[in-house]
Amino acid sequence: MAATAGDPWLDGDAGRLIRPYTVSGGRTRPTVSFDLLTLVMATGSRPHSQLGPDHAQVLGLCGRPVSVAEIAAHIRQPAVVTKVLLSDLLDCGAVATRKPTLLGPDSPDLALLEAVLHGLRARL
Q1: CB 3.0–4.6 Å: which of 2, 20, 31, 99 could bond 81 by disulfide?
Q2: Are strands 95-98 and 10-11 parallel, antiparallel or unpaired?
C-alpha cells in the first residue's frame, strides 16, 4: 500500500484508508441542517474540546467563505460526513454559516440567460 504524498490517509490503489463512518464517529445525522450551498467560514475561535484531524482539515478550508459541497470535495468525503464534521465545528463556535440566497423577484431574465448560453455555445 502506497500512501500519496499529499495525504497519508489516502492509498493510490485502495482509496481512503479511514472509512467515512469512522470519520463521523458512526453518526449519520448532523446536529444542524446544512444545504450543499450553505457557506461556511471560520470564526477564529478555537474549539474548547479536542477535535480530530478531519475537523482540523475542514477548519483549515474555512478561511474564506466556502460551500459545504466544496468542502466535501476537498476532503473526499460524502456530503453527510462533511455535514457531521461541520455541525461539530458549528456547535463549538469554530465556524459560522450563511444559508444560500434565494433569487427573488429581481432574478435575471430567463430570455437573457438563454441568449448568453447560446452565445457561449456559439463560441465553442
Answers
A1: 20
A2: unpaired
3-state SS, one letter per residue, for 29-50: CCCCCCCCCCEEEECCCCCCCC
Measured CA to CA, the distance from residue 40 to residue 68 in angstroms comes to 7
The answer to whether 71 touches 59, Cβ cutoff 8 Å, is no
Confirm if 18 and 12 have CB atoms less than 8 A apart. no
| Residue 14 CA, distance from chain mean position | 23
pLDDT at 86 over 50: yes
Q: Is the pLDDT of residue 20 over 60?
A: no
Q: Which three cell numbers stand for residue 89?
A: 465545528
pTM passes above 0.70:
no
pLDDT at residue 49 in the model? 74
What's the pLDDT at 5? 54
